[in-house]
## 1
Amino acid sequence: MKLFTSKDKLYTAGAVLCLLILWEVVSRAVGASIILPPPGETWQELVRIITYENFWTAVFNTTTRSLIGFTLTFLTALLFAVLAGLWKPLYYLFSPLVVITKAAPPISIILLALIWLGTEKAPVLVGSLVIYPIIYTNIIAGVDNVDHKLIEMAAMYRIGRLRKLLEIYLPSIMPYVLAACSTALGLNLRVVIMTEVLSQPPISMGTSLQTARVFLNTAGVFAWTVVAIALAALFDYSVSTLRKRMEVWK
Amino acid sequence: MEIRMDRTMQKALQITNLAKEFKVGKGVKSLKVYENFSLTVPEKKITCIMGPSGGGKTTLLNLISGLLKPDSGEFKGFAGKTVSYLFQEPRLLPWKTVWQNIDFVSKDIYPKKQRAEIVDKYLKMVDLYDFRDYWPEKLSGGMKQRVSIARAFVFPSDLLLMDEPFKGLDLQLKISLMDSFAALWQQDLRTVIFVTHDLDEALYLGDEIYVLSGLPARVNKSLQVKIPRGERRYGEGKLKELKEEWLADYHDLIFPPERENNG
């Protein structure tokens, strides 16, 4: 089944157009581009920063930070969640940790990460801690929802533990894993950029945002935001493509 | 000299003094599903277990397969026997194709080349060879159940347990599935225990029919179908005569009047 029809696309384009018009109107009413730059000026600024020599380095550094953090967190959460899902004592051992990371304000985590780690590594840790509980709890839910009738069938046909894990548990939790990935990947990027704003690593998207703010270049803040949104959309697109590939049987 | 095979001489599996009870609620007496229950299952025959729903039929299969542990009792001849199970639902893995679903149970048993031959052979026998690369989701209910029948036979089991696998299918489909099953079985005789609540199904496939009733369950009646399989027609002819004869004699044993369950 197609998720979006061409009619849906048309409506989305219309909505974006409305938003742009509203933006233009409000910015003219405000009349000060330092508070709300009009779309045209933001576009010019966007073109300027893209041609700026450090642009791709900044995007690359932030993307790398984001992806490294995501990958490490994902693998850890997958391992722990599967183990905890299969063996209850481990589940209870992990649960206070999950509650703490879920409830702690991100800013506390940012401050602690800055104290513990340098400016370049802090954003990775903060992103990881924010997305870990999301991935972990999603996978736990997936393990809980494995169809016990299939497990019973496999037991009847004397299928070994490892094969049960690889051929029943993993494919059953896959939809949960992918749903968690699509939420976590975008969130992680946003948190990494936020931490970069505060930690100021040499060349990064967060640092560029902060620099634009310091020079009262509001159009620059807007332009970098557009870049961040585009990057998040790219991440989202990759996950949904992967999802379609992996769930061909649906 | 003519040797007469007496029924008692036939090789058989024996269940003796089986007991099993379940906790059914808080502060309620446990429900005794089986107590002092004994049953003989002839080998390489199809034994049907009939009885009302909630009468412990599925429990019996689960006890035999080892999914449930009995409170007490002896299973003679069952030790070391491998089991295939046909469930009410096909229980196929949705992320594996028809072919892979059947191969799933043979992977650890046969070498790769032989596996492919065996899976192909059984797929052809249930008429699904052209659908081997389909996802189960794309098949009809009857086709899915045929895949699960093929899977049960690909697995080299001594014992085949069937828990109403033809329930809820329309008549034509039911007969065609039972024919697929019977064809496979005749090439590869296994000891079959077939749970059903449908007398026509039992007559069509069975050699021996046990009618259970009451809780704790006991064997209320034991009947034998001696008509050769080739001469059986579902719900018609000789089977119909036999059914009418039995119902005239033992209607209340086969279909006991509903009891009020007031404790």
## 2
Amino acid sequence: MAFEISKMRNIGISAHIDSGKTTLSERILFYCNKIHSIHEVRGKDGVGATMDSMELERERGITIASAATNVTWKDTTVNLIDTPGHVDFTIEVERSLRVLDGAVLVLCSVGGVQSQTLTVDRQLKRYHVPRLAFINKADRTGANPYRVKNQIVEKLGLNAAFITLPIGLEDKLEGLVDLVLMKAVYFDGEGGIDIRYAEIPAHLQADAAKYREELLDCAAMFSDELAEAYLEGTETPEMIKAAIRKGTIAQQFVPVFVGSAYKNKGVQLLLDGVVDYLPDPTEVKNIALDLDKGEEEHVVIADPKLPTVALGFKLEDGQYGQLTYVRIYQGEIKKGSELFNTRSRKKFKVGRLVRMHAATMEDITEGGPGDIVALFGIECASGDTFCEPSVNFAMTSMFVPDTVISLAIEPADKKSADQMSKALNRFTKEDPTFQTYVDPESNQTIIKGMGELHLEVYIERMRREYKCEVTTGMPQVAYREAISQRADFNYTHKKQTGGSGQYGRVAGYMEPIEGAVYEFVNSVKGGAIPNEYIQSCDKGFKEASKKGSLIGFPVVNIRCVINDGASHPVDSSDIAFQLASIGCFREAYEKAKPVILEPIMKVVAEGPAEFQGNIYASVNQRRGLITASTEEASFCRVEAEVPLSEMFGYSTVLRSMTQGKAEFSMEFLKYGKVPTSVSEQLRKEFEEKRRKEQGR
Amino acid sequence: MLKEELIKKSPVRVLERGIEGGLKGGNIGVIASRKGIGKTSVLVQLALDKLMQGKKVIHVSFTTHTSYVISWYENIFTELAKKKNLEDYSSVHDDLMKNRVIMNFNQEGVSTDQILKSLRAMIVDGGFDADAVIADGFDFARADAEHFDKVSAFAKEMKLEFWYSCTMSGEEPLLDKKNVPVILRPFLDDIAVLIVLEPKAEYIHFIVVKDHGRMNPEDLNIKLDAKTLLIAEA
């Protein structure tokens, strides 16, 4: 089946945890006739929502992995990409956003704009994703969509206006007012499937007129035709829609929908909004990097006749092998055609090609530009670009943040050991922020990631999906070392007894820098160090900076400058200058007053105002710095900067302290100097560890 | 210029000399003017002066989002540092901002008791041993009569210096015969220092209306630069 590209939408649903995202996805599938009964997320029937394919997600009530699901709304094909909401899985969110053309930002009518909404919105902005807002849960006690809309304007800084208004709120939510058509809309029948239009109730007439005016004021900015018609009072729904669409796609306007997915109110209007206001793949500019031209930017065009360019954005291990989700940016992918992985430089043949629905898959023979499909059995990593062999493009590399936490894991038995390596192999392919290596000193397997919860989830998945039991060590913070002042060095490496000797002298200085991890500067004049050995010096300094002498962590923000040296016509060699440079580094490092740096996280905790004191105290106990605190009605939000090493187990502490009513999010902010007392403690631990290892 | 010198040469010292050595802990001071004259700027400069001296400040904002407050501090600090050629700019900056916490309240729906409870929580539970509270954007028209009695008692108990801004708006006359803003008349007993900012052609003039026991003492000889909104000697 070929699709008309203007009738295609690739959208994601982004939201704060618990704002009803999964329920909304489920309802969308329902209305698009893909499933025949509605399950609740934490369903009593034990079936669970279809989008949450992983058992673990079902248990926690959250969605971790993104699955692309194909549905049809009226005559439009919609690829729905379910994105995870928790900040610890941010890379998954970001990777999904990369392939979206538009997004629905879900907000809760009670909670409004929460810390995570801010994070998600910032990500949408980074990837220039046009969006609609859906203020969900209008049926809940305390629902106030008007307040939430104001927050969208004030806190997210978006130009937004209502497209629909609620008729009644909380348990009196009856239906909606469509401000474009100026009609009341009711959702009758089982699952709200029958839409009935009626006159706007008398008591809402004034409000509807007021918010329609607000909407038209916004929309008229994007269309002269509408502006003129509006002045004359001759505007038509088509004109209004066209103007809103223009503003939305330009990311200068956000249409706001209201409803309750749970009560089956307003989802169909939102789907109409997706079709009416979000872009089709041709309306979004996508840029690839031409690897043959030094990564020159190249705009890819959603044209089936051009050479194929596609991005593998998600891997999944299914029962039939590895499944790769692919977004086609240009050209087509046909069954049996040949593609080229521009990272691994390997060619492969497209075997089985499928389209994914929530729980089933459909075999297809081709996918067109803009489409999202899945390939079977392709050897690749997530983020790889697949091209027709005639072109050599890479889709813009995705922003991968540094990992901040690591954990030693050990398999419980022989069987688990095999499974563990399988699991790790797959996870690291799926998620670039999840990394693993074997520590050469302790011989332990170390996993690294973005936070405690991030690593916990993978350990859980090992247990469940791979039946692999592991024991874990204490989480380890990724410390850094840095020097705080300039220090000179002048070191001679000499070994001239018997056989071929080694000789090299290197002199210069090291100094702290900002904004770079490591810099090497060669200021040697008159060939004091022969040119061929300059690189050896660089190598030596780089090697030495991998492990500082304080606690054995990498040294950052350092510049090593060499300005003098000496060589021997016979005994100088690459290795001699490397060792001389390492000697220089060690000699100068102590003099340069090294300090230990630790990752500082930006923590945002939110909850009922009554727990404010507890939150303050918990931050204070953790060497944290409260930077701001906001109180509104009975709700408070505390922003703080807290060292990561103090944040272990915080979710449990916060939950028990506030009867589960408060929550927090955190993300890496910066590296900061550790206080002297902590520094001494860390050095003591490091010395002990080293002594023990030497004693062994 | 070093930080120490900057403190010594600050026009805030002139202001303090004019009002018997400053506001002192346990007292309430108010800066009043019409909208857009420079109250927030004056408050932020008072706060920065405290921060320079290593004191801790809670900035309470009733109207604006925390990010706006932060940019006020950033802008004025940069302006001051530039004007006075401050040495070691970035480490002084980090030291200062460490001692400032911003608390944001919506005056609607948050009572005086709740505000004071939160302040207490910040100081006691949060371990933030504040010396001064800067309260910006408080709407005196909506304040209940007890507000200042409670705040005054709290300030005395915690030995806090409180500086408020007060916007005068509405019908003339805004000031009574003794130069007291009409809107502040009911609270005058609880206010130790009251300063009115009055725009002149080239600058903004400071009028001290109340200084502890004295009403309308002699002129202070300080002004606000109309362009930079920095306090300067007249």
